[in-house]
Amino acid sequence: MRRTALVTGITGQDGAYLAKFLLEKDYKVYGLIRRSVRHAFENLEYLGVDREIEYLNGDMTDESSLIKAVHQTRPDEVYNLAAQSFVGASWEQPHLTTQVNAIGVLNLLEAVKLHAPRARFYQASTSEMFGNSGREGLQTEDTPFHPRSPYAIAKLYAYWIVVNYRESYAMYCVNGILFNHESPIRGKEFVSRKVTDGVARIKLGLNERLHLGNLDSQRDWGFAGDFVEAMWRMLQQPEPKNYIVATGETHTIRELVEVAFRRVGIEDWEPHVFIDPAFKRPAELYTLRGDNSLAQRDLNWQPRVRFKELVEMMVDADLKRVEAEIASGRRPTGG
User: Fold this and answer.
1) pLDDT digits over 155-173, tens only?
2) Tell me, which fold does domain 187-219+251-286+307-328 have in CATH?
3) Is 73 an active-site residue?
4) Which of 30, 97, 128, 196 is flagged as catalytic?
5) What DSSP letter does each residue of 43-110 carry, written as one string?
6) Which of 146, 175, 288, 308 would bridge 242 by S-S if both were Cys, CB 3.0 to 4.6 A apart?
7) Tens of pLDDT along 197-213?
8) Is 252 a catalytic residue?
9) What is the reported pTM?
10) CA atoms within 13 A on the CB side of 197
11) Domain boundaries, the chain
């Protein structure tokens, strides 16, 4: 019998890649979207899956809409990817971030408990919960949490409420603690895509400089298309367990910038980069590197796309986008 999946946050980067992955496995995919004058389906269109999904209106802050969605779909699997996902914005909108990223998860768990108690539940957790905790910047599933932003604090509440529902109601609930994962459809507010889009615009003569913050910050960057497979594998295990999903490698933002400029043939990149104090976080997070050995052992999962290949993939995609905008006569946006 064909399995069904309910995916929140389906129009985002991870939602789009996960929908594509599930459809290729012959799932019936339902996507929860907020009612809007204009829905943003660009990511799903980019991956060619927008017309294969059945969409439902709902909002993480409206429990009644979540109850209706779960009751209507009776899913086998629920993937909660919905979030206010930009760390920087969480200082400007801490209340909204908490309502969506923390209380919204509680709302969805309640809906699943009431109307699909046998469904397997995946929660999109984040490496941001660790802060600067960890020996030599290495984080495992047992590393203590020390969140350093309203975003990370709200995600930590979600993490523990998922564990609580698993232990209290014998629900199959897991947290996927994902480290940074990128793709050609990553939002431009994130530093990886900001760099690759900015480099493409500099190469094509539309911009002269790229404004960035701390170039020495280190991150564990992987490919979103690889990471969504790990999400799915977590829900196929005999017992629910939390897993770190990461590459195990760190690279600085400086390295990201160098690879991106080199891809377009610009070796002397420093004159094009302006260090802007406006992008400094109130509480800086310096190094994140995940130990994925548990995921490798239990899930038989490991990343396939390496850092350089990922950055070059994103630069190439942004070059094509901006070139298409220029060719169409439209004024290129962003950057």
Assistant:
1) 999 999 999 999 999 999 9
2) UDP-galactose 4-epimerase; domain 1 (3.90.25)
3) no
4) 128
5) HHHHTT-GGG-EEEE--TT-HHHHHHHHHHH--SEEEE--S---HHHHHHSHHHHHIIIIIHHHHHHH
6) 175
7) 999 999 999 999 999 98
8) no
9) 0.93
10) 21
11) 4-180+222-245, 187-219+251-286+307-328
